Each structure stands twice: as structure tokens, then as C-alpha cells.
Amino acid sequence: MASYDALVVVSFGGPEKPADVMPFLENVVRGRGVPRERLLEVEAHYQRFGGVSPINQQCRDLIEALRPELDVPIYWGNRNWHPFLEDTVRQMAADGVRRAAAFATSAYAGYSSCRQYLEDIERARAGVEGAPRIVKLRHFYDHPGFVAAVADHARDALSRLPEEHRRDARLVFTAHSIPLSMAASAGPAGGAYEAQLHKASSLVAAALGRGEHDLVWQSRSGPPQVPWLEPDVCDHLDHLAKEGVRAAVLIPVGFVSDHMEVVYDLDVEAAQRAEELGMHVTRAKSAGTHPRFVRMVRELMEEPEPAPCAATCCPPPARRGAGG
Ligand SMILES: CC1=C(CCC(=O)O)c2cc3nc(cc4[nH]c(cc5[nH]c(cc1n2)c(C)c5CCC(=O)O)c(CCC(=O)O)c4C)C(CCC(=O)O)=C3C
Ligand SMILES: [Fe+2]
């Protein structure tokens, strides 16, 4: 940890009261061409949970779990909701921070999962005089700490299935769907979002002593005419039921905490589909504050500074509907 004098957790952000839901959603989809009907649908998901996304509290919990691991101050700033990263960077500058490590709450390459966090950091720094250097830690999808945490939670989800289904329950890994064009341009050679998710899924499956597993997608957004990664997790459950599969464990390997995409899209939507199909399905917790995952953050800070991403990798999608 020789050289960082602070850690900043950089996350997505989420609303914490009903009146914040729409302004938060407007921030998320600004210029992205997400249809109004989709936005209202997603608003209803948040309002069903009292207008509170779990994600901010999960960031606070992660930070509390990190305190005993680190001997530097820990800050937290978001892309889409308070505390906004720019305000955090202003505080860091005022506190005299010179060179901070940034832990973004996403393990993978891609525009939404990597490049956009880099943009968030640079935009925040540009707005603050005397802003510290901020070094984004590397992608951690294949880190033993991440893999062990996800595997541990998957084991626990398997143990919650009826005994007779544990041995042959299907392991179904899930991640946020993204537009095919975004998937094609992820990473220096393209395709890195899917490739890294496949890698993480097979590492977790291997840790469980399993070979066979599936990787499918969830939480599709965007205009209907734009193709996104498929199949969707609910369609995949239909397919498995037709094949005679009676039990499955859903493992949200694409996320690091049980935020709204997990507690709604998996625990409400996919769970309901499983029930209609008469399948036994449990959902594994995401990494969250698993001690091995928490320790991973310190280990990442102890690594040599990662090489910066090539300027051409994970380019932003063409902007729509916001006048450029
Ligand atoms: C790859 C990826 C991750 C994983 C990496 C990472 O974690 O960063 C992720 C995480 C998340 N996505 C989240 C929420 C939303 N994502 C949306 C929309 C979109 N996501 C996209 C991609 C991703 N998203 C994309 C390509 C869009 C289309 C619009 C655009 O091009 O940007 C929308 C708009 C409404 C809708 O869903 O249609 C919402 C509300 C939350 C917060 C949950 C909470 O509040 O608890 C989290 C952690
Ligand atoms: Fe998203």
C-alpha cells in the first residue's frame, strides 16, 4: 500500500426516498434513449421497495468492513446520486489527499462497467481545483478473493435447495445485459465483458467442483429495436424447464452487491417465473461484505499501479435523444 494515501469507493448510486426515484432515473438514462414506458416500469420497482435502493447502504457497509483492513481514509462517491463523486473529490482535495486508489463496484470491462467510471472520475477531478490523482484499480473478475466469495455464497444457495435437488441443480450465472454493440467494443480487442464473465463463472463453478454451468443476462434496458445480450434469465428458466431441469441456483456474478437489479429482477421476477414453472430456484448472495472479498480490496491496493486503459477501449455508445 506504499503509495496510496486514500481509497475512494466509486459506485452507481441509488435513491433513498420516494421523491428521489425519478430524478435518479433521469440521471441514469440521460441521453441514452431509454423509452419512457421502461422508465416508469423501473420507477415502480423502486417504489415497491419504498423508493429506497439498497445500493447506498451496501456501499456504507463495504466501507465499514474495509476500515479495519486499511490504514488510509476511505471516501465514497457515486455516478448517479448523492453523495456525488465530484463533492467527494472536493472533500478529498480539502483534506490534502494527493494520490488515491479508486475501487469501482464493478469487476468487468465495458463502457457501463469500466470506462464510464473512468469518465466519472475525470469529470469529478476536472471540477475541483487541486484534485488528487485517482488511480482506478484493475478489473477483479478473476481475483481469488472475488471468486471465493461468490463460490461461498453459491454453496450456501445450493444448501437451501431441497436435499434431493442439490446434486444436479443447474448453476445459472447472471449479469446485466448490455447492447450487442457495447459488448462488441468492450476491452482492447472487443468482447471482453462477456469473456470476463465466462471466465469468472467457470472459476466459480470449478471452485464448487462443477463443470457444467450457464451464463445468461438480466435487466435489459434501452429501446426495443436495439439488440442486447440474450437469453434473458426468465427465458432461460423456461428453456431449462422444457429440458426437464427441476432445480437451479441463480448466481449474480455480474454484480458485487444485492442492489435493485438483484432484489427485483431476480428475487421478484425470476423467482415468480420459477414458481410458475414449478422449479426449485434459490439465489446466491453477491460478494457484498464477504471477508475474502473485503480483503481483496487491500490486495488490489498493494499491487503495482495498473496500466491505464487504452483510450480506444470500451468507447461510449452513440448518444440519443439529448441533442448530442
Ligand atoms: C453493465 C451494467 C451494470 C454492471 C456494472 C456496474 O455495476 O456498474 C449496471 C449496474 C447497475 N444498473 C443499475 C440501475 C440501472 N441501470 C439502467 C440502465 C442501464 N444499465 C446498463 C448497464 C449496466 N448497469 C445499461 C447499458 C443501461 C442502459 C442505459 C445506459 O446506457 O446507461 C437503469 C435505467 C432504467 C432501466 O433499467 O431501463 C437503471 C435504473 C444499478 C443500480 C441498482 C440500484 O439502484 O440498486 C446498477 C448497480
Ligand atoms: Fe444498469
UniProtKB/TrEMBL annotation:
Q: Which GO terms describe its biological process?
A: heme biosynthetic process
Q: Where does Fe-coproporphyrin III bind?
A: 53, 117
Q: Does the keyword Cytoplasm apply?
A: yes
Q: Which reaction does it catalyse?
A: Fe-coproporphyrin III + 2 H(+) = coproporphyrin III + Fe(2+)
Q: What class of enzyme is it?
A: lyase
Q: In which pathway does it act?
A: Porphyrin-containing compound metabolism; protoheme biosynthesis
Q: Which positions does UniProt annotate for Fe(2+) binding?
A: 176, 261
Superkingdom to which the source organism belongs = Bacteria
Keywords for the protein's UniProt record, in alphabetical order: Cytoplasm, Heme biosynthesis, Iron, Lyase, Metal-binding, Porphyrin biosynthesis
Q: Which GO terms describe its cellular component?
A: cytoplasm
PROSITE patterns assigned: FERROCHELATASE
Q: Where in the cell is it found?
A: Cytoplasm
Role: Involved in coproporphyrin-dependent heme b biosynthesis. Catalyzes the insertion of ferrous iron into coproporphyrin III to form Fe-coproporphyrin III.
Family the entry assigns: Belongs to the ferrochelatase family.
Q: What is this protein called?
A: Coproporphyrin III ferrochelatase
Q: What is the phylogenetic placement of the source species in the record?
A: Bacteria, Bacillati, Actinomycetota, Actinomycetes, Streptosporangiales
Which gene produces this protein? cpfC
